[in-house]
Give the backbone structure.
Amino acid sequence: MNNSKEDLIREIESARLVLNKSIDEGQEYEEIYQNSVRLDVLIEKYIMAGY
């Protein structure tokens, strides 16, 4: 996986959409939590890369 700035931004946007959808659809807590963690990891990668 290439972690260019643009790639990370796309991944973050996609993960955010997945998280929002899981919340809107009332999915199980564990599913929502995992989606949130995935988004957090991507945001952390973005921050650590210094973008």
User: Anything to note?
Assistant: The chain is about 80% helix and 0% strand. The CA atoms of residues 3 and 45 lie 9 Å apart. The longest helix spans residues 5-24. Helices lie at 5-24, 29-48.
